Amino acid sequence: MIKIKLPDGSIREYNNSITPMGVAQDISEGFARNVISAKFNGQTVETTTELTTDGDLTLFSWKDNEGKTAFRHSSAHVLAQALEQLYPGVKLSIGPAIDNGFYYDVDLGDRSISDKDFKKIEDKMLEIARGKHEFKLRSVSKEEALAKYKKQGNEYKVELIENLEDGTITFCDHDDFTDLCRGGHLPHTGLIKAVKIMSVAGAYWRGDENNKQLTRVYGTSFPKQKELKEYLALLEEAKKRDHRKLGKELQLFTFSQRVGQGLPLWLPKGAALRERLEQFLKNAQKKAGYEMVITPHIGQKELYETSGHYAKYGADSFQPVTTPNEGEEFLLKPMNCPHHCEIYNNSPWSYRDLPKRYAEFGTVYRYEQSGELHGLTRVRGFTQDDAHIFCTHDQLDDEFKKVIDLVMYVFGSLGFDNFTAQVSVRDLNNPNKYIGDVANWEKAENAIISAAEDKGLDYVIESGEAAFYGPKLDFMVKDALGRSWQLGTIQVDYNLPERFDLTYKGSDNEMHRPVMIHRAPFGSLERFIAILLEHTGGNFPLWLMPEQAIILSISDKYKKYAEKVLTLLENNDIRSIEDHRSETIGKKIREAEMNKFPFIIIIGEQEEANETITVRKHGGEDLGSLTIEEFTSLVNKEIAATLKPF
After folding, report:
1. Which residues are catalytic?
2. Beta strands per DSSP E along 120-212
3. Cis preceding linkage at 7, omega within 30
4. Structure confidence at residue 458 (pLDDT)
5. Which terminal CB of the chain, N or C, has fewer other CB atoms within 10 Å?
C-alpha cells in the first residue's frame, strides 16, 4: 500500500501505484475534470505519472497559478507544432510559459511572421487542440536526444542538450510532435479552447547580442473563449492607462535622446507630484525616528568592491570613470547602502545609541539593455526612497515590524489595499549566488518569517528570490486591473556590517556587529509613480494631485472675480489654477476633464453676485453652488479620508 497525503491533511491509500489523475477521480469525477497539473513531494509531475511511494500530492486547476503555468506551457508546445506545420524546416529553440501567456523562439531562416499571419497560426493551433492529443513525457538518453536534433540540423536544441546530464533528459510527445521538455503539462490538448497570437519580436539566442537573432512569437490561451475576450478587454483598458501615455497627456515627464535612453526628465507638474510624495514619506519617517542624509552620485570603485556589488553587478553596470590620477576609478552609484555604511562608520556607537535610522532619496544608476527599457518602470537612473537601520540583534524584531507598519501606511494612503507579502529566501541548491555565513542567513530568514507572522501578514515563501546579501520581505500589490507588482521591500542583512567592519559597544563592554535593515516602501519613485498612474488612471488621491482645482470663467467679464477666488483657494492651501483663455465654457470643461482636475469651478454672473462658486467634480458630478468656506471644508474632508496621520 502507498499513502498519498493531500493539502487538507487527508490521506488516501492505494495498492502499488496511482496517478495524480487517478487520485483526482477517486475524490470525484467532477473534481477530476478541473485538474490540469500536479506536484508530488514538491516536484512538478504529469497528471499521468505513476506514483509508487508515499508522498504529498497537490492537484491544480485553472484557478491556481501552477495550473495556469501548465496550461500556457502546454500551449507553447501546440504553438511549436503549428509553426512546424505552417513553416516546414523551422528550427525550434525554447518556449516557456510567462505571465499571462507564453512564447516560442524560432529560426525561420529567410522567412518572417507578421500580424497578417496571426489568424492562420491561431486556426492551426485550435485545429491541433481539438484533436485532444495526450501529452506524454518520456526519458531519453543524451545520445538519442543529440542524434534526433543533429539529424534535424537544429543547433539550438543540440546546444541545450549538450549542457544537460545524461539521465535527466526528457521528451514530451503529443500527436506526431515531439519536443525537448522537463514536464508539467495538461492531460490533453483539448482543454485549450481559446488562443491568441499577441505579437512577434526579435530575440537573440540565449539573450546574447553576438548570437543569431530569432523570431519570438508571443501568445496567450484560455480554457474558455469568454475568458480570452475578457482578457483582451482588460488589455485595451491597460492601453488607456499606460503610464507613458498618461505621463505625456498630463505633462508629468518626458525622455530625450540627447540626454540618453532610460534617463527621465521630470516636467514641472511631475516634479511637483514627486516632491509631494517625497514630503509625505519624509513626514512619516521623521515621526518614526529617521534622520535624513545625502550621499554623492558616485563612489570609488573600491567602495563597491568592499560591498560586493561590483563582483555581482559590475559587468552589467556603467563602466568605471577614470580620473587623471593613475589607478583612480569611480562608479556611478548603483546602490545607496555602501554610502550609508560609511556614514555609520563615521562615529563610534554604543548599544544605547542604537538603532540608527538613516534615510535618503538617493539617485542610483544601472546600465539596463536598451531593449529592456520601458517608460518609468525600467530606467537607467532612478531615485530610491532608501533607508538603512543599524540595530542590535535584540532590536531587530521590533524594528522590522515598525518598517512593516510604515509600508502599510504608505499603501493605505495611496489606495493599494490588495496585496500579499512574499518572504524571499535563498535558493539552497545555488549557494554561489549569495555572500555571507550560512548561520547568519538562517537567522535573518527566521527573523523575517517571525515578524510577518506576528503582524498577521498573508505571506508566501519564495526560494531563490533573496538579494545576494540577504533575505527580504517583498510586497506584491495588485492594481485596479488585477495585475501584480512588487512594491516595497524590507531586507535583513548580516553581511554588509561584516564587510564594512561596522561595530558598536555592547552592555558587556565588548564590540559587536549591528544588524542592518534595508528598506524602501516605494522601491523607486520612478517605478512607483508609473504603477500609481496606471492603478489610478491618472486620478491620484486628492492630496497628491499637482493641481486640485481649475477655475473657468464663462467670459472675460468675470476674470477679476476668478482671480479673487484663486487667491482665496490658495490661501486655504487648495492648489488651483485659472483657465482664462477666450474659449467656450464647454470646451474648457471638456479639456479640464481630460486633464483629470479633481474639481472644476465655474465662475459667472450669479457666482460673482453671490460671492459663491459652482463646483463640478471630475467625472461629471454636479456639487452645485458653494461658498469658498464650504468648498474648503469639502476638500479637507476628502483629503482626511485617505491621508491619515502616521
Report:
1. 337, 366, 384, 386, 388, 472, 518
2. 136-139, 170-174, 177-180, 194-204
3. no
4. 87
5. N
